[in-house]
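Quick one: structure tokens for this chain, please?
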Amino acid sequence: MTTRPATQKNLLWLQSGGCGGCSQSLLCAEAPDLVMAFESAGIRLLWHPSLSEASGADFRGLLEQIKAGEVRLDILCLEGSVIRGPNGTGQFHRMAGSDQPMMAWIDDLAHRAEHVVAVGSCAAYGGITAAGDNPSDACGLQYDGEENTGLLGADFTARGGLSVVNIAGCPTHPNWVTETLMQIASGQLHARDLDALGRPRSYADHLVHHGCPRNEYYEYKASAEKPSDLGCMMEHLGCLGTQAHADCNTRLWNGEGSCLRGGYACINCTAPCFEEPGHPFNETPKIAGIPVGLPTDMPKAWFVALASLSKAAAPARLKENAVSDHIRVSPTQRGKGS
């Protein structure tokens, strides 16, 4: 039997300029699932665009009750970027049935909420919606790319004392969201629990590289040359797992996989401006044969020296398997005393 906290926390979930992928991911939450997570944390879902029956006038009535102080807003979650165009008016995206831009509603509700949470890289930093020429002038809640010039600005602090909590990812891992919301509801999320970009350190203090199934190939710089190869994808195929802050390979998706386990290079989707790498996602830019994006905390001279030694010491097994789509040479089985 689940014991609910004495005081429930009211959560309102809004969607703006995005694809809804973070909500789709959230429905796959496990251990606990979404319903159990909210019930055990005492979170009452006031409204979600995909999960709630209320729409139209009923939904707008709820927002008016919040504005009038009749309904307490403890947690405001925004999924998708804020649309500010054209010319800062926000008129490219109006609240359905309302003459007000979504941007104005988000700003007003954020200043009434106890905590404000950006779910996904679009809500956090602008994300895919802000890519290219960004004609809609999309931005994140507090950030616009790497700059603190989003809708709410650098000085924004929610009534609970925290700036915007940026659960970045494209999409977010469902348990990053449930875990963070449970921390907020229990009063256990503090400023020290967020990194310099406002991301929860529970996942952002890790690297995607941790737990990568291709780590042996990485250690010996046995590199893949095409997408179907088994080798490390850092050298040629654009993988940024050694730089990306997330725990995707230790907190697996749906209990099974991650981008790398599925054969796709990490594109560092938890970082600002990941959508504009300046080169194709599946290519590694190099200068004089050295990858431009070196592993986090790795000095260039050390990388060059270690890479040369590693390649020289790479077992023949790894060299052959690295450029194959299946294991061709199995590890040697040593007998006792070998």
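The radius of gyration is 23 Å.
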